[in-house]
Amino acid sequence: MEQEHFDPDFKELYDRYIREEQEEARKIYNEIAPELTLPARHIRRWWYPVAAAVLILTAGTWAVTSDQSPFRSKPKYTEAEVRQSLEKTIRALSIYSKTVREEFSRVEDLTAMTEAIKPGKRTPAIDPKSDSNTIKN
Amino acid sequence: MHQKTFLDLIEPLKPRLFGFAYRMLRNREDAQDALQELMMKLWNNRKTLATKGNIKTYCFTALYHDCIDRLRKRNRFRLVTGSDLIEIEDKVNVDLYFENNDLIRQIREAMDNLPYKQKVILELRDFQEFDYEEIAKMMNMTVNAVRVTVARSRAAISEKMKKEISYGTGTL
Question: Which of A22, A85, A116, B47 is deepest in the core (most CB within 10 A)?
Answer without folding.
Answer: A22
